[in-house]
Batch of 3 targets.
Target 1
Amino acid sequence: MAEKYPQSQTDDQKFDTKTTEKPRCSPNLLVAAIDFGTAYSGYAYSSRVDFVNDPLNIKAHKWSQSLKSHKTPTCALFNKDKKLVAFGYEAEKQFTELTDDDKHQDYYYFQRFKMNLFTESEDRRKKKGLTIKSMIRDIKGDEMPAIDVFSAAIKYMKDCLFKELKEENDENAEEAESIRWVLTVPAIWDDDAKQFMRKAAEKVFIHKHCI
């Protein structure tokens, strides 16, 4: 008798059946999706068990209890050492306070930075395309490597997910390579921009076979 719910396969298992190398992302015990929006961003996830019991049982992180929001502003605040100090609502709050105290000059503040990938890619279409050396400007015109800004934002949401899983005593919190990651990208992005997002994720230890 066939199983009612046959075990799903990863892409590595489906298309790399001839190799003896153990897949780096198998089995997929949980799927996590990070959505970079132009104005707002967030993430959602669902475990295999939850999917089997109810395919619509998808959990989305609440960034603000008061607003009951599942999205947070696509804003990132970095210090003078180019280390992320805040993201989303907290980044907005801290940068406003720094500006009020006239202490913001040594900080980098990026907002709605996702579309910079599309703009940069269009500008370079006739050159060599978007690369890990591409730079983006913050609201003051100061530059940082684009790969550092995006990877820091991905890491922030990744860390938030792991913290949430640990609070739920979810075994997936300790099994990073059992998670299948989904990064949403606009249809208008070219292959350079899409590959850039993959590289940004890999930079913060999300294995390429898990994306």
Note: The helical segments are 11-15, 48-53, 89-100, 115-123, 146-167, 191-203.
Target 2
Amino acid sequence: MAKIQLEKIRELMKTNPDILKYINQDPEIIERELKKDEEYTKLMKSEELDMDKEIRDTLQNWIISYRKRLLDDFENREDVTLSIQDFRQQRIEKMLKKNPKFILRNHLAQECIKKAEEGDFSMIDGLLKVLESPFDEH
């Protein structure tokens, strides 16, 4: 949704809080999208990042492309009865199933090897337990 649309919805919410029921929107989503847009605008104007124009344009194009992709995914969802909140939650659950919370890093493996060479296998046992279920909280 465009920034101007979000801002108009925000204004309508002030005078008629029930308006969101009619357009099937959540006030938190409206505010979150406006905040994202503000952060994006701040990033694009930031001189502290010292990005050259090419990098800034690339980043801007990627963000626009990604936001369009998210909107397309929602508009073309299989279950059209899903609200945007449920669709978002479903998307998050899919990502969590595909992206592990833990990935073995070389420095951890090296430390395990070092301790094992000294006869202490406790770190290997702990690391092995985590590696057996990298998608779970530990």
Note: The two ends are 38 Å apart (CA to CA).
Target 3
Amino acid sequence: MFLRFCAFGLLLGSSLSQPATAFSHAQASVNSVIHQCNVINANFDGSLNQIHHMVLAASKSNNETYTFREMLKQDDSHEFIKAMEKEVEDHESRGHWEVVERSTLPSGVKTIQAIWSFRRKRFPDGTLNKFKARLCAHGGMQQW
């Protein structure tokens, strides 16, 4: 089945007489899988069997993850900052926390530390989907 999928992709790719500059998301995904199929098949003896074709479409390397400091060094850090604002607004709208001034806390009480994680989410063909920012509470400090 995998080889049939690659053959279908090769036929589909060869039927395009002119290079296209804009693909639909589905066409771009098919092109990505075809390319990855050819690359992997070239590294082996040409007999890839029993591998589901979508295994090649799920590439973790396309989603770059950054810490706060690394994010600030990126050229598109303003997009991550917008994602941060959305994350905070989402938490506030759901009532996940309440803001408390440190001066009002009783002595000996600690606040829960948090860490930001940033990621560029991509479609299987490598095009940018969205910027994500996640605020994660320090797990060891939470009480249930």
Note: The radius of gyration is 23 Å.
